[in-house]
Amino acid sequence: MKKGSLLLILISISNSVLCITSQQLDSIYHAIDIAIDSSQIYLQQKTERINILKTRLQKTESLEERFAWAKSIYEEYQPFNNDSAIAYQYMCIDISQRMGNRDFYRQSLMALADQLTESGFYHEAYIHYEKLKSESLSDDMKHKYYYCLGRLYGEMSYYTHEPKLRDEFSTYAATMRDSLLAYPDSLSLTWIHEMTVMQINEGRYDEAFKCCNFWEQHCEHGSRDWATMAYFRALAYGNQNQTDMYRYWLAQAAIVDIRLAIMDQGALWSLANSLTNDNADRAFHYVDFSWKCLSQFSTHMRSWLVAPIVININNQYKQSLQDANKRQTYTIIIISLLAIVLLLLLFYVLKKRRQLSYSRSQLQLVNKQLSDANSKLSIMNEHLHQSMLQQNELNRVKDEYLGSFFSICSEYIDKLDNYRIKMNRKLKAGQYKELLRMTDSEQMKSEELEELFHHFDEVFLHIFPTFVDDFNALLRPEERMVPPENSLSTDLRIFALVRLGITESSKIAEFLHYSPNSIYAYRARIKNKAAGNRDDFERNVMKIGLN
């Protein structure tokens, strides 16, 4: 049928424009989610079909049957795994050469070149097309040749970075398309495909929709051809900025691709790219699935094409997470402030209720308090009088302790004088050996120190009778001290002097006849045993006996 005849048929087909609601979009997005969740089932079914074909291929010896099974395996692998598809197409070429069947050879070589185009191996594909140029092609083969070679030039035009080459390749692609469309052919889907692409590229979208309508009527719903039709219909809507319709038909194509286990998920990652700014979570979910499918398909060109979209969606997803975190932070701050305000109001109300209750009780007691005021005042005067008597008694006791210290000092003076007289007598009598013996011995010093410490302990414990218990309360339970009755240990004696206000280690050392370093070591060791903060230990010791 000629080109003009086809156009008359297409014009007769109405172009129905659907109006898609947000509910319908949500419904079809949900259908994509279900399909993705079931993708492993579709993948398993695809794998089982391939395994069955491989088994049949292994069991047959006939070259004709081997060619047929290898071609069937290639067709299964073509949208599923690029490397395997290429491998089995090479097998078809090898079998056709062994058979000496030139038609099978040309078909296989063209299919291989087309698969290499899909993979991005344009140079290799072009070499194979050059081989086919010298072959004698049938009308059907020429039709396929123009289509595949035009696809190669189109891909090269799209991906090249050289402006001149892009224009040149685009011109070649248009030439191939014109040759295809002008070539006598039945109403094949390949012809419709190229006609649709041409109409979209030239901006004649009404004609493109008519082609899609005819295309849809002549292919099975849910087939790969139907998914391709839905994809090009989406492109036409997208070029007209009809975003909802664009997304709807991309979703339709994506669902079919998933159910057919097609790994080249062009429709799904195009949909993900469109959803990036509106629904980053869904876009990220779709592009993640399509990226995994692309890894299964194993073609570097698609990976190169999808990578910027993945990066864009990832950045958008991160930004949406940051925005959500900021909103969550602001919400938490506002809720916290409201909670604080409510707590303050609650405390204020409770406080006012307690004040009101207290005021009522105070009003009831005011008369009684007034009547008891005189008696209470008398009692307070009596307590004040008793306190004054106790203070006078305390002063008297302190004076007595001070007198005791003076008496001890006087006694030491008398002892020293008697010792002097005794020494003087020994000198006059020439008893030098006796003097030497007396001065060599430290017994007297030890006895006097012991007596001095005994007096100090006795008087100090009389003034501060609870000192030992209060001091032990500042230590950890396992480190508490139990000194002899009515006396102090060296550790307690050091901190007794601290309690009396003697805080310098050198002065404490003079009194106790130790070196300053020893006193410092004693103090550090005791502070390490403190139940609380060791830096506050001596300040707490200074407070003993104040209450």
Written description of the protein model:
This protein is an all-alpha fold. The protein is 80% helix and 0% strand. The protein has helices at residues 3-11, 22-37, 39-59, 63-77, 82-99, 102-119, 122-133, 139-159, 163-182, 189-201, 205-217, 224-239, 243-259, 266-275, 280-297, 300-428, 432-440, 443-463, 467-473, 490-499, 505-512, 516-527, 537-542.
Write the layout of secondary structure elements.
Elements: H1 3-11, H2 22-37, H3 39-59, H4 63-77, H5 82-99, H6 102-119, H7 122-133, H8 139-159, H9 163-182, H10 189-201, H11 205-217, H12 224-239, H13 243-259, H14 266-275, H15 280-297, H16 300-428, H17 432-440, H18 443-463, H19 467-473, H20 490-499, H21 505-512, H22 516-527, H23 537-542
Helix pairs in contact: 2-13, 3-4, 4-5, 5-6, 6-7, 6-8, 7-8, 8-9, 9-10, 10-11, 10-12, 11-12, 12-13, 13-14, 14-15, 15-16, 16-18, 21-22
